[in-house]
Write a structure and sequence with these properties.
Oligomer: single chain
Helix content: over 70%
Number of domains: 1
Shape: globular
Distance between the termini: 15 Å
CATH class: Mainly Alpha
CATH topology: Na+/H+ antiporter like fold
Length: 326
């Protein structure tokens, strides 16, 4: 398929169309909205299903086959905040707390963007490593920890005594419900294996696409409601929200290629590297960096980068992965 065909395939997928419907509902100020409890339930379901299926895949592939790609994913989680932070400080003019908060959001990942990417690859019949969902579990915590440490100045040469707030953040980054559910489900999947998958397949596999469509409908409404905040974040953050995914995604594609992933697996690592968090990172950053303005990080992540990735970013990362594998 050529580039425009892959974009068309992505745009016409049910997940993207439901996202567009939610966006339209928000822009037209429809009274359509989800109860908070339903949104939470959908989130927990998706995270559990992703982690469990990834764990089963790791158990089938064996650790010998996955350690290099997983190491590349951990490396991306640490590297992205280190790349983003000085740019936000020097070019964007953000103070230390806000630069660290935004860097943490962009180092952390979007599980929903990852799911949309797997749907995209299935639609164009491109295979990928089934253990790729394990990348999500190993990228989130390092990125959040690194961004918070940068935001607090804990990585500077003058940092001396331990910081109680930082310790709490380390705990929240590891034991927060998103990361805990992903890692816990991953371990359960690894331990139970294919036999365990057979017993829960009717719940975690068959309804998955329908739950994703509902979740993206809600995310479309949330993103649409954030469009008005673009005036507040300024032109730099608008450019950053579009350029950072491409830079980070290209780095992810390069590392995925070097780690021996297929074109499909490389695409998924690039998608995660180019994504930004709006679930795990906001919760941890809010506690650790109370001086940071959430309007900056959330608007950039959810109002700019997420829609860009869903519509155009995923096909672009696929093209980059194909180029690197030639």
């Amino acid at each position: 398929m050529d580039f425009f065909s892959t974009i068309e395939s992505n745009l016409l997928s049910p997940a993207v169309l439901f996202f567009a419907l939610g966006l339209f509902a928000a822009v037209t100020r429809s009274d359509l909205k989800f109860p908070e409890a339903l949104y939470t339930a959908l989130t927990l379901y998706l995270l559990t299903a992703i982690g469990f299926k990834g764990g089963v895949a790791v158990s089938e592939a064996g650790l010998a086959a996955v350690w290099q790609p997983l190491l590349a994913a951990v490396g991306m989680g640490c590297l992205i905040p280190l790349v983003a932070f000085p740019l936000l400080r020097r070019l964007g003019g953000f103070d230390q707390a806000n630069a660290g908060a935004i860097a943490a959001h962009y180092g952390s990942v979007s599980a929903v963007t990852f799911i949309a990417a797997t749907n995209f690859l299935k639609n164009i019949a491109v295979p990928y490593e089934s253990f790729a969902s394990a990348f999500i579990a190993v990228m989130d915590s390092p990125a959040i920890i690194m961004g918070v440490m940068l935001g607090k100045g804990s990585l500077s040469r003058g940092a001396s005594r331990p910081d109680q707030g930082l310790r709490r953040t380390l705990r929240d980054a590891v034991l927060g419900r998103g990361v805990l559910l992903l890692v816990g489900s991953l371990l359960i999947g690894m331990l139970s294996g294919k036999r365990g998958m057979a017993s829960v397949e009717a719940f975690f596999v068959t309804p998955f696409q329908g739950v994703l469509a509902l979740f993206l409908l809600e995310m479309g409404m949330v993103a649409g409601n954030r469009l008005g905040d673009l005036k507040k974040v300024g032109p730099f953050l608008l450019v950053f929200g579009l350029a950072a995914p491409l830079v980070h995604g290209s780095l992810g594609a390069l590392l995925g290629t070097l780690a021996g992933l297929s074109v499909g697996g490389t695409t998924l690592l690039a998608v995660l590297a180019g994504s930004s968090s709006y679930i795990a990172a906001p919760a941890a950053v809010r506690l650790a960096l109370p001086d940071a303005n959430p309007a900056y990080s959330l608007t950039a992540s959810l109002g700019i980068t997420f829609p860009f990735n869903i519509v155009l970013g995923i096909p672009l990362y696929f093209e980059i992965a194909k180029f690197l594998h030639r």
